[in-house]
Write a structure and sequence with these properties.
By secondary structure, the protein is an alpha+beta fold. It is built from 3 helices and 7 strands, in the order βββββαββαα. A hairpin with a 2-residue loop joins strand 6 and strand 7. The chain starts with 14 loop residues before the first strand and ends in a 5-residue tail after the last helix. The relative contact order is 0.08.
Length: about 160
């Protein structure tokens, strides 16, 4: 028996060849190699697709849940990751972009849109932190002098 050795095709910079399971569990599946961006963390061999055109690329998932002391479940879940659907009919979906997932539905953001939203979320986080400080002081939970000292230290000053 003679072994056939094939050199894998070259990939574009920023991409790698990875195995992907294509087909259906009931009609048969095949392991093929697809070009995958380096940022993609999806296991294409484990997460089978019907055809190569169905292969999408997903980055690491990150998110936050906002709890409530009046409810058992999270009041708001927000998550995001890098995403690309290289065979989408919508050309904007083919390139890497930021996918934000909410209960209201998915939001697809260009990198510029994601930067702007990140700036807004940073501002919101600062306002939430300030509101927490005000509520804490109103409830007698903290010492205002210590809070001011901590604020100065965080800003690089001296307590």
């Amino acid at each position: 028996m003679t072994a056939i050795v094939q050199t894998p095709p070259a990939t574009r910079p920023g991409f790698k060849l990875v195995p992907a399971t294509i087909g259906s569990p009931t009609k048969g599946q095949a392991l093929v190699y697809v070009e995958c961006p380096n940022w993609c963390t999806e296991d294409h061999a484990d997460e089978w697709q019907h055809s190569v055109d169905d292969v999408s690329h997903w980055g690491d998932y990150f998110g936050a849940s906002i709890p409530s002391f009046t409810q058992d479940d999270a009041a708001l879940d927000l998550s995001a990751r890098v995403f690309a659907d290289p065979y989408s009919a919508d050309a904007r979906m083919r390139g890497a972009h930021v996918l934000v997932e909410t209960a209201a539905g998915d939001r697809h953001l260009t990198s510029q849109m994601a930067d702007e939203i990140a700036d807004d979320l940073i501002k919101l986080a600062g306002k939430i932190r300030e509101a927490a400080r005000v509520a804490s002081q109103a409830n007698g939970d903290s010492d205002p002098d210590m809070d001011e000292a901590l604020r100065r230290v965080r800003q690089g000053g001296v307590a």
